Amino acid sequence: MASSIVLFGPPGAGKGTQAGNIVKMTGKPQVSTGDMLRAAVTAGTALGIEAKGYMESGQLVPDAVIIGLIKERLTESDAINGVLFDGFPRTIAQAEALSEIAEVSIVIAIEVPDNRIVERICGRYTCGACGAVYHDLFNPSNDPNVCDECGHIGMKRRADDNEDTVRNRLEAYHAQTSPLADWYRERGIFSAVNGDQDIVKVGEEIAAIL
Ligand code: AP5
Ligand code: MG
Ligand code: ZN
After folding, report:
1. pTM for the complete prediction?
2. Fewest CB within 10 angstroms: 53, 135, 183, 184, which?
3. How far is the CA of 14 from the centre of ligand 2 (A)?
4. CATH number of 3-113+164-209
């Protein structure tokens, strides 16, 4: 399999927001473990039933579950030229497992200070059809119920997008995920962009790395 890209960063950093452009630029499909888990919760599968409690409390879903999910996803035909990972890996164990099944050529970290995260998460809404990401104040759609990207009527808000859960997600990020930055830095494939600026500017910094 050709090389993959990892989008790395705290909750609300803008991984999902920036993923669309990266997909357009590279042709690699977005593989978001968060989106896959939410789809499983909605469908009520065994995976969804197992993951739901962790997600609603803002804890990480166990590594074995996530690694199994990714292994299966990478067998699909569209993954043949590498993928864009969004929100994976999130622990050293996940990164080690990934290194055995796929080559990662670039890790792009979107850096945003903690004090910006709550306001971002609490104003987020997404299109119920294509998943486009919006924000009440920072990135509103032209009509609050209609997606600018695909015209679908009906937006969704996430069950874990509330202030209490966000604090737990941030804690999990700092304790379990942020050590991965050094792990990838040591491997010479880590680049960081300033995520605390206009969405378009963040996209330009990412494009310059790619
Ligand atoms: P996941 O869905 O991955 O959530 P997350 O990492 O918490 O990240 P978010 O999706 O909340 O943020 P984002 O960076 O995509 O930001 P966005 O672009 O939407 O995971 C959810 C849960 O699933 C986890 O808590 C865990 O339980 C489980 N899970 C998932 N993967 C796992 C794994 N690998 N291992 C274990 N467990 C796993 O932007 C946020 C908002 O900000 C939007 O409203 C957007 O419009 C706005 N915004 C974006 N950029 C800007 C900007 N530059 N300026 C102003 N506003 C902006
Ligand atoms: Mg996301
Ligand atoms: Zn849409």
Report:
1. 0.96
2. 53
3. 7
4. 3.40.50.300
